[in-house]
Amino acid sequence: MLECAIVGGGIHGTYLAQRLLEETAVERSDLRIVDPHERLLESFRRKARACEMSSMRSTFVHHVGTEPFGLEEFAEARDRGDELLPTQEYPRRPSLSLFLDHADHVIGRYDLESLHHRTSVESIQPRANDEVDGSFVLETPDGDSLVARAVVVAIGHGGRYRRPAWADGVDGISHVWDDAFDPNTAVDETTVVGGGITAAQLATTLTERESVTLLSRTELETETVEADPLWINWNHVERQLHRHPPGSRRRLDVLYSAQNRGTIPPRLVSALESAADRDALSIRQGAVRSARVVDGRVRLLLETGGCLPADRVVLATGFESVFEHPFVGHVADACGLERGYRGMPILEDETLAWRRTTGDASRLFVTGALAAGTAGPLAGTVIGARRAADRICDSIKPPSESPVIAD
Q1: Domain FAD-dependent urate hydroxylase HpyO/Asp monooxygenase CreE-like FAD/NAD(P)-binding: where (predicted)?
Q2: What domains does the chain contain, in order, with CATH numbers?
């Protein structure tokens, strides 16, 4: 039996594994990172490649390693300090290449790939008998079940992308994170639909080799980071979020109002404006009424009556709510775990342990976007991984040896 199984090998799962090895008595042999990809962080890498991301939005102290200044030291030791990029009124941020190279360095240093169990998890079931109470069985497609005393769910948004109804069944329309989408496919004209950082990054990069239209439902909004940096402070999370009942609609309202959703950092706004000035980019505002293919080209009909033709349309329209992911529902039902408004997991605020319907805390913990109702608007970010690990590590400890009683 494992002491802990981490479901998800992204930034959150990779970071938490290090913290568990550093700060708890969990042995390497008792820890697994369960993820179906060929290597850790692969899903993040693929998404970054798809939108041709060049740099991180977070600062240089937010990375996969556990030492706050580890990435900076890594860069300086390799004469790559110029890849710590200036940010207006905010600390420097790393290039994507630097961030990933440092991540690979950390993974190699801890030999985390040896903990990587390359499979998906189809279900998580409770396992209870006379010998073991409160542990879990993780069922995998190959039938190689894992048993763990504690489980951490770190699944991100689970690959569920938001697709508007008008795009259903129309050839030539893909989501930026679909496996089939290749930004390097040569076309003359692309329409990117979306108004956030992914749409801006993709549109800006594509203008280097083709004509691009960026179509946003509303006016583009500028924000440097995903939420006010005050939300990095756990005391602020407690004051602003935890004063409302766990799983409540009020918590979700606070969460949504605090998130700078669909915003673009100033550096990308400048890049968009530069591309528009050289006539490589057209920025349009409006909602799409319908889409169809005419003579091999996709035509978007706008609610205002206009029409946008393009060789292809790429959706950068974000994710569906992870709270409503079917896997989350299956785990909650199978393990008797409580959910709140719109499927939000009801977690213990101090430990991120998922509460059972009986009212007590389970040994199933949550990190990442799924924990946003407790960890706040930065839950899904790199700093969110740090804050979640602060709470989870104190709760995942191997059972102590039974005391020896003298005769």
Answers
A1: 5-157
A2: 2-159+321-392 (3.50.50.60), 165-225+260-315 (3.50.50.60)
